[in-house]
Amino acid sequence: MKLLPSPEIWFVCGSQHLYGPGPLAQVADNARKVADALAASKALPLKTVFKALLTTPDEIANVMLEANNDPKCGGLVLWMHTFSPSKMWIRGLDVLKKPFLHLHTQFNRDLPWGTIDMDFMNLNQAAHGDREAGFIHTRMRLRRKVVVGHWSDPEVHERIGSWMRAVRAWTDWQGAKFVRFGDNMRQVAVTDGDKVSAEMKFGFAVNTHGVGDLVALVNDVSDKDVTSLCAEYEKLYKVVPALKKGGKRHDELRYSARLELGMAKFLEDGGFKGFTDTFEDLHGLRQLPGMATQRLMGMGYGFGGEGDWKTSALVRAMKTMNAGLPGGTSFMEDYTYHMSPKGHQVLGAHMLEICPSIAAGKAAVEIHPLGIGGKEDPVRLVFDAPAGDALNASLVDLGNRFRLVINEVTAVKTPKLPKLPVARAVWECKPDFKTACAAWIYAGGAHHTGYSYSVTTEMLEDFAGIAGIETVVINGDTTLSALKQDLRNNEVYYHLAGGFRA
């Protein structure tokens, strides 16, 4: 995956000098063992490093400032092995800018009932040491994730792993750049938004380059490189005869390859992590980038159609989260419905740009008319997405805040679609079609989404928690009455919490 960050997570343990040097040495040794076990876990995507045993306000503040200034540090795991008076932590936590997870655990899994004495009790006080920490976190209104359970528990590793994936995506957004080739599709509201607010809130920048800047690079691509990439296509995909070397439409495949190479160079030279385009602004290009966009998305770049920079950034974040997991993530659009009384389904697709990471089998390379945009017929990858659990997520700008809307879905086998030559997925919504669609519309979710088989709701909730934005989850437990009340409550909460800087 392009430009995938691999920050480390600092493991920090809290105690105090009340217990003396002997117990503190034992606490430090135990904390190292916990950190080492997390570092060795295959369920955790980022390296865990034991950083420090902290026992004074100055130590705590210094480590928090060090974390802020160290680009290798993505976040912290905090654990109070003993009782660590939480007033010591106020100054340090107040300056901490990195995300943190509070692990509520203890070193011993089982209590040695027959030999417990007060020395053991004093040494193993996480049961109330972590409650002291939890109070000050709550008192200071700090955003964090709390994970409870023994540090050897696979479920604990899984939940920490979800948070780490969110941390990696958040780290990836800091200083990230997204490019828009042309502007937003005219008159469309949901794909537009406040890019200044987004940079203040999320840390990434979105800027526009004229399509002519891209055209210059596309035109400079060498014929040799185009020939080499076309040969790669024939090895990887089922290329229709007309597009193969010697076929009557091979020139269109070569132009698609030229588009991919030119776009890749533009993104690499500029250090961009995602992009948008729009069929309304293709001056100097022969085709709307179809397969080129699909393959670039497959490399890890974010994408949003029609200038949708928020979805481009979200797709990039979701791809960063799912790196190394089975299943894929793609830009998606809720395109049309199957509303049979026997079962309601959504057909998801786009004009061209669905990522091959979600292909159920070997994709076909085909060429067909587009019908809009007034350009040449674009080359595209055609495939079905697999059945399985999945989700759709949408990041929307509500003016005074951003909202992340998530709908858990079940993808089903795609019916035969002989006259629809695009990549596509079919799914059933949770809790049911009518409730999910109404809830999505009440929440203001967009028609463009990030669609994934590997990103989970927990990862996205962790990510939204780090970002400090509202989350609306539509799943098997959703009822419209509760959701509408939550949306009303959120209007008040985020108005008060955001203040004038939102």
Key features of this structure:
502 residues, alpha/beta, 6-stranded antiparallel β-barrel, 5-stranded parallel β-sheet, 19 strands, 39% helix, 23% strand
Provide structural commentary.
The protein is of the alpha/beta class. It has helices at 21-40, 57-69, 90-95, 118-123, 126-139, 154-173, 195-202, 211-220, 223-236, 250-270, 291-298, 309-321, 433-443, 457-467, 480-498; strands spanning 8-14, 48-54, 73-80, 100-104, 145-148, 177-181, 205-209, 238-239, 274-277, 302-305, 329-340, 343-349, 364-367, 379-382, 388-397, 402-412, 424-429, 448-452, 470-474. The strands form four sheets. It has a six-stranded antiparallel beta barrel. β6, α7 (195-202) and β7 form a beta-alpha-beta unit. The longest helix is centred in the middle third of the chain and has 21 residues, at 250-270. The protein is elongated and about 85 Å long.
Task: Report strand %.
Answer: 15-25%
| Helix content bin | 25-40%
Q: Give the overall pLDDT as a whole number.
A: 96
How large, in whole angstroms, is the Cα Rg? 25 Å
Low-confidence stretches: none
What class, by secondary structure content?
Answer: alpha/beta
Beginning-to-end CA distance, first to last residue: 33 Å
Count of β-strands: 19
Instruction: Name the strands of the widest sheet in spatial order.
Output: 11-12-17-16-15-18
Shape: elongated
Q: How many strands, what sense, and barrel or not for the largest sheet?
A: 6 strands, antiparallel, barrel
Number of helical elements: 15
